[in-house]
UniProtKB/TrEMBL annotation:
<keyword id="KW-0028">Amino-acid biosynthesis</keyword>
<comment type="similarity">
    <text>Belongs to the acetolactate synthase small subunit family.</text>
</comment>
<dbReference type="InterPro" id="IPR004789">
    <property type="entry name" value="Acetalactate_synth_ssu"/>
</dbReference>
<protein>
    <recommendedName>
        <fullName>Acetolactate synthase small subunit</fullName>
        <ecNumber>2.2.1.6</ecNumber>
    </recommendedName>
</protein>
<keyword id="KW-0100">Branched-chain amino acid biosynthesis</keyword>
<comment type="subunit">
    <text>Dimer of large and small chains.</text>
</comment>
<dbReference type="GO" id="GO:0009097">
    <property type="term" value="P:isoleucine biosynthetic process"/>
</dbReference>
<dbReference type="GO" id="GO:1990610">
    <property type="term" value="F:acetolactate synthase regulator activity"/>
</dbReference>
<dbReference type="InterPro" id="IPR054480">
    <property type="entry name" value="AHAS_small-like_ACT"/>
</dbReference>
<dbReference type="Pfam" id="PF10369">
    <property type="entry name" value="ALS_ss_C"/>
</dbReference>
<dbReference type="InterPro" id="IPR027271">
    <property type="entry name" value="Acetolactate_synth/TF_NikR_C"/>
</dbReference>
<dbReference type="InterPro" id="IPR039557">
    <property type="entry name" value="AHAS_ACT"/>
</dbReference>
<dbReference type="InterPro" id="IPR045865">
    <property type="entry name" value="ACT-like_dom_sf"/>
</dbReference>
<dbReference type="Pfam" id="PF22629">
    <property type="entry name" value="ACT_AHAS_ss"/>
</dbReference>
<dbReference type="InterPro" id="IPR019455">
    <property type="entry name" value="Acetolactate_synth_ssu_C"/>
</dbReference>
<comment type="pathway">
    <text>Amino-acid biosynthesis; L-valine biosynthesis; L-valine from pyruvate: step 1/4.</text>
</comment>
<comment type="pathway">
    <text>Amino-acid biosynthesis; L-isoleucine biosynthesis; L-isoleucine from 2-oxobutanoate: step 1/4.</text>
</comment>
Length: 176
């Protein structure tokens, strides 16, 4: 049985790394639900957050193969209870004079933000976990969603240790 997994992959910030990582998932026939990439606190490193549906053993095999790729520094699976997960959503909703107040109530209820307003539409920015994003969209559906764009899921481990600190500690142990 396959379940959803979130992997945080720390990589060198070099051309072609994302292609190699996503290609490995594609060759193993994993469907990538979400993929987000960006620089970390160190401009020489990037973090790839990938969300996939996979059975435990095939995911372990892919993780081992990822570790063999050049430019891969560290891979961590982020469990739901040990990490903070968020997505960014921009949604354009139809808004007439009669419905605009109701749309704005939904925006306030979900602690979202209006980023653009024209006479017949409101563009809203919202952040949150999967459940919040789904509930927000469900609440806006009756007003007419005209356009929608979502970022991939990003996640970070709870607590005060960072992924890059883990890497630094491991590198110091190898040198000793």
């Amino acid at each position: 049985m396959s379940t959803r997994h979130t992997l945080s992959v720390l990589v060198e910030n070099k051309p072609g790394v994302l292609t190699r990582v996503s290609g490995l998932f594609a060759r193993r026939s994993f469907n990538i639900h979400s993929l987000a990439v960006g620089e970390t606190e160190d401009p020489d490193l990037s973090r790839i957050t990938v969300v996939v549906d996979a059975a435990e053993l095939p995911l372990e095999q892919v993780t081992k193969q990822l570790n063999k790729l050049v430019n891969i520094i560290k891979i961590v699976e982020l469990e739901d209870d040990s990490a903070v997960h968020r997505q960014l959503l921009l949604v354009k909703v139809a808004a007439t004079d009669e419905t605009r107040a109701n749309v704005l109530q939904v925006v306030d209820l979900f602690r979202a933000h209006v980023v653009d307003m024209v006479p017949d539409a409101v563009t809203i920015e919202a952040t949150g976990g999967d459940n919040k994003v789904k509930a927000f969209l469900t609440a806006l559906e009756p007003y007419g969603i005209k356009e929608l764009v979502q970022s991939g899921s990003v996640a970070i481990g709870r607590g005060n240790r960072s992924l890059s600190e883990r890497v630094s500690a491991e590198m110091q142990l190898r040198r000793a």
